[in-house]
Amino acid sequence: MNLTLRESLLAFRRWPALSFLSVTTIGFALFVASLYGLVALNLHRTLDAIGERVEVVVYVLRGTPVEVVTVAIGEIESFPEVTEVTYVTAEQAMERAQAEMEEFQGIFSEFETNPLPASLEVRLNSEFQSPDHVRSVANRLRGYPFAEDVQYGSEWVAKLDQLRAISGVVGLLIGGAFALASVIIIGTTIRMAVMQRSKEIGIMRLVGATDSFIRRPFLVEGAIKGALGGMLAMGLCFAAFVAVNQLLSAEFFNVPQMIAVVVFGMALGLAASVVSVGKHLKNV
Amino acid sequence: MTVIRFDKVSQVFPSGALALRDVSIDIAKGEFVFLTGHSGAGKSTLLRLVYAEYLPTEGDMWVSGHKTKGLAQRDIARLRRRLGIVFQDFRLLGDRTAEENVAFALEVTGAKRSIIGPKVMRVLSQVGLASKGHQYPHELSGGEQQRVAIARALVNDPFVLIADEPTGNLDERATRGVFRLLRDINANGTAVVMATHDLDLVRQTDYRTIELKEGAVVYDSAVDRKPAAGMET
Question: Tell me: the pLDDT tens digits for B208-221?
Fold first, then answer.
């Protein structure tokens, strides 16, 4: 086995308690960060799913010939923002109303003529659901002479957008804070390891080891600890997910995301070791 | 040929304490030199200057032709691989066997594994510990531990062996054994610089003796005929 790797693994065997402590602390720091990530991930998925329902409704002026509406549907479908246009006739609107509001059955049957207008339900592509895009589509639709009214949940769309932005910023802040905490923790454990091995480092120097040779096992050790911490965090996250998922139907990270967390932990471990070893090797 | 040269070297610590004062010494290839003097006389400081743990604050010194003052950290590491260093407290790694301790000195040089095994066996045999390679330091006697340390110092074929009170922690019998080993190593052509305050050892041989007092050389048998005051007692 490679000498550097052997020396790094030896550290785990010789100081199991310290190694266990650092891996679990890193694991818990990454766990909290990933747990937030998981919440943010599910929040985004939910928001996206809600977003797919963002639609603009055009109420069609009574007496508009079907041909005119059909031509307009073709045009509207060619808007880049639009994914689907559904034509709801006055009769369909009535059927829907009757089905959805059973308690008003009596009232509906008393109408001599159908009071409900026909409408076009315009569904937007998920990339174009910002308030600006929705407004722009609505304005274009208002230009059709048969458009009696155009409605969309403008306030609701704006709030959805805001919620998305807030969750993104909060996620970055919390993730950043815990990443920093992990760096400090790993840095401290590496520092402890350097101090604990000061005698050994002294002997290494006496027999002619260069500083880069002395440094290498510490860096590998930090990277291994970070990666193990990442794996532990994923394990804890999964346990938490299983527990919570009995109540809510949520989704877990996919494989690339899990690998990303482990690689991120490894990078944190390496970065912390580089800083810590560089600073403390001089004092040994 | 000179392997170690001190030219008017003084060593002042940041605290202002003067550890060595105007020391000029030449040590030749294959020479055996005793360094004597009371505790605090500057013996260890002088040896530390040889293996570039300290760099002289005044004067110049050369080890194997290299001026230590100008050496980069990497060059100091390379220089130390060509020196063997032995201490009173052995400085072995307690969680490694005798064999692993010796192999360690080769591993840091990036030596191939295929040559490490045979070389380690050769030096362990040379110090008389071929059968104890798998034992840990705490399973060995003081004399045996010092032999492991000497084996480690020898494994890189040093041109000089630096020994700082190597028998200071040993009983009389172990002392004789270790001293005999150092003499054998010297007989094979390696220079030995040994700091000691065991004057019995010094008197047993006619090796060159340098005595330090308060950081200055007060006696050098290669220069002075008359033994220093301390030598007469």
Answer: 999 999 999 999 99
ipTM, two decimals, is 0.84
How close A31 gets to chain B, by Cα (Å)? 35
User: How far is it, in rounded angstroms, from Cα A196 to Cα A30?
Assistant: 26
Select from A6, A206, A212, A282 the residue whose CB has the most chain B CBs within 10 Å, as the one to mutate to test that interface: A206
Domains and CATH numbers, chain A: 2-49+163-283 (no CATH), 55-151 (3.30.70.3040)
Helical H runs in chain B?
43-50, 73-81, 98-107, 113-126, 142-154, 172-187, 199-204, 229-232
Which residue bears the tokens 């998922």?
Answer: A245
Q: What distance in Å separates the CA atoms of residue B83 and residue B44, rounded to the nearest whole number?
A: 16
Q: Which two tokens stand for residue B83?
A: 């020196």
pLDDT in tens, A250-261: 788 889 989 998
CB contact under 8 A, B81 and A206: no
Contact residues for A11 (Cβ-Cβ < 8 A; gap 6+) = A19, A193, A197, A217, A221
By residue count, chain B amounts to 233
CB B91 within 8 A of CB A203: yes
Kindly report the pTM of this predicted structure. 0.70
Say if CB A269 and CB A186 are below 8 A apart: yes
Residue B168, C-beta contacts closer than 8 angstroms, at least 6 positions apart: B88, B196, B198
Nearest to B91 by CA among B35, B23, B165: B165
E-strand ranges in chain A read 55-60, 82-88, 118-124, 147-151
Burial B195-223 (b: 16+ CB within 10 A, else e): bbbbeebbeeeebbbbbbbebbbbbbbee
How far apart are alpha carbons B144 and B129 in whole angstroms? 8
Report the residue from B80, B82, B107 with minimal CB separation from A206. B80
